[in-house]
Each structure stands twice: as C-alpha cells, then as structure tokens.
Write a structure and sequence with these properties.
290 residues, alpha/beta, Spore Coat Polysaccharide Biosynthesis Protein SpsA, Chain A, 13 strands, globular, binds uridine 5'-triphosphate
Length: 290
C-alpha cells in the first residue's frame, strides 16, 4: 500500500454565499478567529503526514498563494522591532520550499473538475482532499483519522456524518453496506438526493482519501447535480472495484461555506482560545438574555 503524502486543496469556487465579502477575497482566506480557513486545512494535512500540497485556484486567489510565502518586509520589520511573539505567529504559514504547487481551474465547473485539474500532481499516488470551508474541531485531526483508517482498509476512505434527512439535498449521501458503527462499507453514492430519495442520511464531509483511478472517471466530464462535474459521481464509479469506506470521524464539523456555520465556528474556536474564552462566554450570556 502506498503511503499517503499528497493533498489537493480545491479553492477555485466562487463563494457566492459569502458575497460581497468574497468579491475580491477568496472564501478560504476568511479567518476563523485569527487564522484563514486555508491555514487550518494545511495544518490539519501536515498533522496527517502530508508533505506535498496542490491548491486548485482560480482568478483573484493570489492571496492564498502569498499566505504560504515569506513576507520579507513584514518579517524584517517585526524582527527589527523585536516583536518575536508576532513573528512566531507566522510559523504555521511556512511550508517546505517546493512542497506547494498551484494549478488553475479557469472555469469553476464543479468539484470533480477541480480535482481533475490536479491530475498531473496526483499521478499514480493515493491522495487526500481537504475542502477548506469544512472545518473540524476534534481531538485527533480529522484527516489523521482518515489516514489511519486508510492504513487499516486500503482503498478509498471518506469522512462521514449523519445529517438531518431534510438536508440530504445539500450533500453527497452514502448507500450503506456493512457498518460497525465507525467504519461503513460504501455501496453507493448519490450527490444531493431529495430527502425521500436519499439512500441514508449519512453524508460525506470535505475530507477524502482517494485512489488515483478516480481521475480516469472524472475525465469523462459527466455533468451531475447542478450541471457540475461532481466528485461524488466519479467516486461512485470506483465502488465494487476498490475498497470504499466511510469513517464516522470523532469531532464536530462546521460548514464555513455557510454563514450560520461560519459564525458557529467562530464561537466554537474562540472558546478554545484560553485568552478569548472568558470574554466570549460573557458576551454570549449577554446576547442569550436579550
Ligand atoms: P462549494 O460547493 O462550497 O462552492 O465548493 P463555492 O463556489 O466555494 O461556494 P458557493 O456555494 O458559491 O457559496 C466546495 C469546495 O470546492 C471548491 C470550492 O472552492 C470549495 O473549496 N470548488 C468548487 C472548486 O475548487 N471548483 C469548483 O468548480 C467548485
């Protein structure tokens, strides 16, 4: 079994649910407390043993690339002023030289198309996908949990969680085979099924470990839900040919592509900051009583 060392970070979406904030700034640069979404994703990937990153970008996304470069003037000024605490805050933004590449998705034709754009980077290797707008608060980083499950089962492993049946039309949904309460055998996958047509209410979240053969399936460019090239449809074509499992990860997921989910993430992550938590708790109590 090949080790998991590569991750694809698709960041070429339009982020329409966050307009006008995302007119000139990528959704993945929006901060949760003090870090942009993209940095949480890169840190999570590193903690899972990922060494090579590919961001699938589009127009107006250069800040995402800049974020992982050195900021010479800023760093030099901070050093000259003795602001070592501020300098230390930049550590998480530094990546190994040559370990992060970008490819361009000129037109956002869907998540499946974005992943297909990274095909030269993926080559013949297993790879992870992290959607930076899905943020997971957990003891063990979510992708590390998936990587461990991949070592156990081989093949494809996706992170899954139960969603209200009324919401199945927002997600990729599993048809379930054997289920031991943690690992679920995936028998089928459907993108955004209507609640009464959904085979279950177990949904995929934005963390995947996939085999490179998915690229051949995506290259068919079949249009699925919403007229987009759907990753779910490409993955579905691997079922029966390769092991395919869902992992009920430990942790809480926040859909930061959605305003309410994004605001909830701010609160949940702020409460994890020792210096912020008391103030946040105090104002939450105040608003709760209004
Ligand atoms: P979303 O479904 O959240 O779409 O994409 P979006 O465009 O970012 O946001 P809305 O729905 O318009 O508000 C999920 C992930 O897939 C990427 C996005 O950047 C995000 O990380 N994506 C989506 C692409 O890279 N390319 C696409 O064509 C579509």
């Amino acid at each position: 079994m090949k080790p998991l060392r590569k991750a694809v970070l698709p960041v070429a979406g339009l982020g329409t649910r966050f307009l006008p904030a995302t007119k000139a700034v990528a959704k993945e640069m929006l901060p949760v407390v003090d870090k942009p979404l993209i940095q949480y994703a890169v840190e999570e990937a590193r903690a899972a043993g990922i060494e090579q990153f590919c961001m699938v970008t589009g127009r107006g996304k250069t800040a995402l690339v800049e974020h992982f470069d050195i900021a010479f003037e800023l760093e030099d000024t901070l050093r000259a002023r003795g602001k070592h605490d501020a300098l230390a805050l930049l550590e998480g933004t530094q990546v190994e030289p040559g370990s992060m590449v970008t490819v361009r998705q000129q037109v956002p034709l869907g998540l499946g198309h974005a992943i297909w754009c990274a095909r030269a980077f993926i080559g013949d290797d297993p790879f992870a996908i992290l959607l930076p707008d899905d943020l997971v608060l957990s003891e063990t980083p979510c992708l590390k949990q998936l990587a461990d499950a991949y070592t156990e089962t081989g093949g494809n492993v996706v992170a899954v969680t139960e969603v209200p049946r009324a919401h199945t039309n927002r997600y990729g949904i599993l048809e379930i085979g054997r289920d031991d309460g943690r690992l679920v055998e995936v028998k089928g996958l459907v993108e955004k099924p209507l609640p009464d047509e959904a085979p279950s209410n177990l949904s995929i979240i934005g963390r995947y470990v996939l085999m490179p053969q998915v690229i051949a399936e995506l290259s068919r460019m079949d249009r699925g839900a919403g007229g987009e090239v759907q990753l779910t449809d490409g993955m579905a074509r691997l079922i029966g040919r390769q092991p395919f499992h869902g992992l009920r990860y430990e942790g809480r997921r926040f859909d930061c592509g959605d305003k309410a989910g994004f605001l909830e993430a701010q609160i949940a992550f702020a409460l994890k900051h020792k210096d912020l938590a008391p103030a946040v708790r105090a104002f939450l109590r105040r608003y709760a009583n209004d």
